Amino acid sequence: MKRETEGREVKEDVKLKILNAAKKLFAKKGFEGTTVRQICDEAGVALALVSYHFGGKENVFFALFETFAPEFLQTEYELKDPVEDLSSLIREFTLFRLAEPDLINMLQQEVMMQSPRLERVQSVIHGLWRQLIMILEKGRADGHFHYDSLRHTVQSIIGTLVFARSTAFLDPVFEQAGETAQASENGDEVVRYTTGFIMNALQCRQAQGL
């Protein structure tokens, strides 16, 4: 029994090494630019183990989203307080983005390329976007949120949550404007900035007290 337990632990450890290596490489090189050999070299495992544990590179890719996707993506909000619900959604996704930047980079690449893998990747996160739609509709019906187009509002919020991030790319622009480069904000600051930006766009006065 002890040997079986140890064997399972070793197997899971190998799988996690492969997944962590793949996540790093996919985020940096993209799916097409990453080979199975590179993943195995990065993970420090034998080449055959990717096929043994996952059946190929594409399955490793999908396993990343299934393994590292947080539980809150499946949250069903009660919609009793849409302002609080939206604030919670923004906070949870922002913290997820900060905790898993490589996974977010992978998602960004798939969206930008409209890759053949996108439909399956989207299935992991579509439930959250449906919840976002319901929160916005309830908030507008209750008079908390103000917007004209649901489609454009949802797309703008998703763009803010998925694509907005602190980056050194714009540092030269800020320096020219008289602002010095700053260290990365902590999680609470990023959540506060992101929440304020979205709530202000929705003209939500109630959110000022959050």
Automatic annotation (TrEMBL):
Instruction: Tell me one Pfam family matched here.
Output: TetR_N
Which InterPro entries does this UniProt record tie to the protein?
DNA-bd_HTH_TetR-type_CS, Homeodomain-like_sf, HTH-type_TetR-like_transc_reg, HTH_TetR, Tet_transcr_reg_TetR-rel_C_sf
- List residues of the HTH tetR-type domain: 12-72
Which SUPFAM superfamilies does the record associate with it?
Homeodomain-like, Tetracyclin repressor-like, C-terminal domain
- Which PANTHER family does this entry report, sorted A to Z? HTH-TYPE TRANSCRIPTIONAL REPRESSOR SCO4008, TRANSCRIPTIONAL REPRESSOR
Q: Name one GO biological process term.
A: regulation of DNA-templated transcription
**Per its record, how is this protein called by name?**
TetR family transcriptional regulator
An example of a GO molecular function for this protein is:
DNA binding
Which residues does UniProt assign to DNA binding? 35-54
What are the alphabetically sorted keywords of the record?
A: DNA-binding
Query: So which domain of life are we looking at?
Result: Bacteria
Q: Does the keyword Nucleotide-binding apply?
A: no
The species this protein belongs to is Paenibacillus mucilaginosus 3016
Is RNA-binding among this UniProt entry's keywords? no
